[in-house]
Amino acid sequence: TDVKRGEATAGELMSKRVVTAPSQMTVVDAISLLLHEGRKRLIVVNDEGQAVGLIDRQTLLAASISL
Question: What is the third-level CATH fold of 17-65?
Answer without folding.
Answer: CBS-domain (3.10.580)
